[in-house]
Amino acid sequence: MPSEMNNIAPEQLFRLRKLCHQLCALSCVDWKRRGLHNELLKQRPHWSVLKRDEEFCKIEQGETVPFDIALPLPARDPNRLDSDQGVKLFWETFKCQHCGKCCYTPGAGLYLEAHDFDRIAEHVGKKRLKTLCKYDKKIKGWVLKQPCPFYDLEKKECNIYYIRPQTCAKYPLHPPVKEIPYNLAVDAFCPAARELVKETLSWWIICENNWARLLSRMRE
Ligand code: SF4
Ligand code: SF4
Question: Residue 47 above 60 pLDDT?
Fold first, then answer.
């Protein structure tokens, strides 16, 4: 981080990130898309380069340990219609490896929103869909068993791709992590997400520059 950011209290950093999300979210996506982080990296050393191996090692742990990773991309702001630039750049950059791990890995189950359940039931029949799900009384909703019964292991594809649940369509995006609620986050289990996290580590230099700029303005 720039020297101005050293010794900054966690609460202040949290406020800066919030302010940055309100003021800089659109411009920072544009800078990242245009590769301006490369110019900044030439000007000063950055942890994404200095600690590259250490960071990569942490990221790779996602293959076996469940956790989410924050990305240097702004999450949607529910109060602004034009705040989907971060999500757009995510999908422009993300390259699914079609490994199918998100579909056939055994797990607790995949929650279906009511509209997911109705849409899929229309296609496969309500009775059959219920046999592929379990009803969760706590959340009052249907949960699709995992490994997913709709994944075709031979063809390596989803049999209901065009009507798949919302959670699948958004994957590997997960809700933002608690400590960094203004940024997009991904499930570290997905190999393509881990690659994207590695590729975009240096994008944080743009965020950090923005935070430092806002901090010095606040101190003036
Ligand atoms: S785990 Fe990730 S890379 Fe593999 S199919 Fe799912 S989204 Fe694609
Ligand atoms: S519904 Fe389709 S995309 Fe979703 S987990 Fe099942 S096979 Fe994968």
Answer: yes
